[in-house]
Amino acid sequence: MTARRVLVAGTGLLGASVGLALAGAGADVQLLDTDLGAVAKAEARGAGRGWDGAPVELAVLATPPHVVAECLAKLQQAGAASVYTDVASVKQAVLDEAEELGCDLSRFVGGHPMAGGETSGPGAARADLFTGRPWALCPAPDVPNDVMDAVLRAVAATGARPVFCTAAEHDAAVGLVSHAPHMVASALAATLVDAPPLALHLAGRGLADTTRIAAGDVTLWRHIVLRNRVQVAEGVRKAADRLARLADDLHLGDAEAVEALLADGAAGRALLD
User: Fold this and answer.
1) What is the DSSP letter of 35?
2) Which secondary structure element, helix H or strand E, spans residue 210, and what is its range?
3) Helices 68-77 and 92-100, interaxial angle, to 10°?
4) How far apart are CA 10 and CA 33, in angstroms?
5) pTM for the whole structure
6) Which of 13, 31, 162, 194 has the fewest CB atoms within 10 Å, i.e. the most exposed one?
7) Does 226 score more than 70 pLDDT?
8) What's the topology of domain 170-271?
9) CATH class of 5-165
C-alpha cells in the first residue's frame, strides 16, 4: 500500500496519471498546480482533489524539469511532506539545482517513469500509463530506509518496475534512448515543413510512426534537452555521423555499405523487443 496522503505537484500528463494510479490504489491524493484550470480538469478525471495545505506523507513533483528544484525547496520550507520524489526526465541538473537551493536531499529520491506520449495535459492522463514500464530511481547513498520505502511503495502502486541507477547513469541512458531520438525525429519532421503537397499526400504510417514524438510539447522538450545537452549532443552526433556516411554511400552507389546500415538498424531495433 502506498502512502495514505499523497501530494502531486503538477497536473500535466504525468502528474495527473500518477494521481489516477495512486488514487486507484487507495491513496488520498491531493493536487497542486499554478494552473488552477489544470487542477480542476485533473480533479474531474478522478486524479485527486485540491491540496488542503496540511502535511502529507509523500509529495510527487511532476512539474517541468526546470522548476523541480524550486518546487522542492518551497514545499520543504513549508513542511509539506515527509518524503519527496519527482518524475523529471533529467536527474543530475535537478539534484545540482536542489543542492544550490539548500534542499534536504536526504528526504528526496529522484525518479523518472519511462512513460508518456506526444499529448499533454490532464485530459490525456491514464491510470495505467506506468503499468509494466521502467521507473528509474536515483537515490543518494545516504537516503534513509523509510524514505526509500515510501517511494518504492508509490512506484509499485502505479504498476511500474523500479530500476536503480545514479543520476549520471540515468542521464547518459535517456540521452541515448529518449532525448537524442526525440531531436532526431524533430529534425526529420522539420524537413516536411517545405514538402510539396504531393509528398504529404503520399506519406504513410511509417513516416508518422517515425516522427510521432516530434509532436511533443516544444517548451517542455527545450528545457529537457538543454538540461542534458552534453549527452543529447553525443547521441545526435552519432546519428548524424551515420546519416552522413549513408549519404556518401548512396551517392557512390555502395550497395554493401547501405545494406550494412540497414542490417545494423534491424539489429538495433530487435534489441528493443
Assistant:
1) -
2) helix 205-211
3) 40
4) 5
5) 0.91
6) 194
7) yes
8) 6-phosphogluconate dehydrogenase C-terminal fold (1.10.3660)
9) alpha beta
